[in-house]
């Protein structure tokens, strides 16, 4: 069918056709958000293969309420998706025995998982600004769960490493949920809402080690990954039945434009540059601590079992319990001051670990507590500061 010319209210021609959908400024409401025409267009072209329950469909006149229950679902999802990155850490000794390789070879596994995660942050999470976030979250969660099926099945270290990279790459749902929570929460509750999702993320970091250590002590490490598959599909079901549909933030942008805008912000926004540099350094130290802790506790002078090594994750749950207090405190403070205090505190914990970890177990316990509280405070304050740039 040939396109026809129509006149809008401003006497400007618009193209219409049964086979073409055009979004103009008329498709946006007075608030600048996509109107019904834009939303209809997005449904046609953006991951529209996933049906949406009627009560979760987007209604611009009655947008879904972001309350404590939905915030808790975000935290639950963050817990068991981010856990994919950390199940391997207390299992490294068992991996070396199962695959008949050295400690140096199995130590590549946590690195590859984190490298995959970094790749997902760079290549997948920007889609959160381009497409509707509900189908994006469902797809990446389903990918992570499905790819995890290969981990307990394979008998090859190289296949395990490759799958670990891909699982890490697709385990980015928490980093899509965090900005979604920041967008939906009112400004006076933004830090509190973010802290709940980050608390779930930190809980996943810790509970993964605890569950992996306990299960691997009594049965094979492969059961740990079978459990993770079930938990991830449970997360997928929870998100499907509770996550409302929201329109895309920037449907007119292209993927490459979003990547370019990220690169531009990374070199032109001073506060973002500072947060990136701090996060790179603190994340490296935090990951290094938990990976090397397995070999420290498993060797002399401690010689602890996999069970005991995994239980050290319980100590860090104190930091999760501090999340509501941290969020409310940062809501009342300048975020940058909170970041500075948390960073100094983390430096002190690293100094204690470096000097006394091999001397007395009390030093290790103190550092476990301190690192998790300090890291939680630092992440909440920096995230609040970054989202404040566009608030």
From TrEMBL:
Limits of the Major facilitator superfamily (MFS) profile domain? 67-391
Keywords carried by this UniProt record: Membrane, Transmembrane, Transmembrane helix
Identify the GO cellular component terms for this protein. membrane
Instruction: State the residue spans of region: Disordered.
Output: 1-20
Q: How does it sit in the membrane?
A: Multi-pass membrane protein
Coarsely, its chief localization is membrane
InterPro entries recorded for this chain? MFS, MFS_dom, MFS_trans_sf
| Extent of Basic and acidic residues compositional bias | 1-15
Identify the PROSITE patterns for this entry: MFS
Its subcellular locations are: Membrane
What GO terms are given for molecular function?
A: transmembrane transporter activity
Checking SUPFAM superfamilies in the record gives:
MFS general substrate transporter
List membrane-spanning regions: 66-87, 107-124, 136-157, 163-182, 194-217, 223-243, 272-298, 304-326, 333-351, 357-374
Name recorded for this polypeptide: Major facilitator superfamily (MFS) profile domain-containing protein
Taxonomic placement: Eukaryota, Fungi, Dikarya, Basidiomycota, Agaricomycotina
